[in-house]
């Protein structure tokens, strides 16, 4: 029944829009009436909260009319109910509110029917089922300073080290350990690689081969699990007795994009 009431309201909105478009007479204001408090509640609500049938019709009504122009008419004063209450043709042929309109329209708005004092009972059957889908991620890489704001690598490193400690006091001159600078440098290099080679980094982390069209393939790139960096190497990386840091200094270089 409520869906029929809503469909009737949509028909009224479409008719009002058509008259406003086609008539050359100036129309100062359009008032639309419904005796269904639930339908009026739907029209004044967000259409996305309802299932498809109600939601699409409410959205169209809201696009065709001004929601504030919808008013409530009680059943006693609603001429639309006359045709459904067994009126005879003789009764309908006589001067009647069904073709003359309700009497209250001949008076000022303060004599018009007012909305019921009690709110309509919520019809939860037309509401979409709500569900929550959440995804929590922990970013192990802290927010780093914007590199373009610094003209010297030393200044960028110092600011990065301060950011790792929370930058509680930007004017603090307390010394930091060498490990802090090593960590800051690794984070900065990791960020540059992620920004420049995002798909290639994902492939190397997952131990997937790089596409043959990739320009990095000829550089024999490898993912360093200890630092999270991509390294490209030469023959010395096959030497089992060499430590990674020594290998890095000799023949195993970091992949740093330029430009």
Question: What is the element layout, followed by pairings?
Answer:
Blueprint: H1 2-22, E1 32-34, H2 37-43, H3 52-64, E2 70-72, H4 89-93, H5 97-100, H6 153-164, H7 178-196, H8 198-205, E3 221-224, E4 229-233, H9 244-250, E5 252-254
Parallel strand pairs: 1-2
Antiparallel strand pairs: 3-4, 4-5
Helix pairs in contact: 1-3, 6-7
What would your notes on this structure say?
- Helices cover 37% and strands 7% of the residues.
- The chain is built from nine helices and five strands.
- It has a three-stranded antiparallel sheet with strand order 3-4-5. It has a two-stranded parallel sheet with strand order 1-2.
- Strand 3 and strand 4 form a beta hairpin.
- It is elongated.
- About 3% of the residues have low confidence.
Q: Taking strands numbered 1, 2, ... along the chain, how are they ordered across the largest sheet?
A: 3-4-5
What is the overall pLDDT average?
77
Globally, the shape reads elongated
Structural class call reads mainly alpha
List keywords for this structure.
about 260 residues; mainly alpha; 3-stranded antiparallel β-sheet; two-stranded parallel ribbon; about 35% helix; elongated
Summarize this entry quickly.
The chain contains 9 helices and 5 strands, in the order H-E-H-H-E-H-H-H-H-H-E-E-H-E. With 259 residues, the protein is mainly alpha-helical.
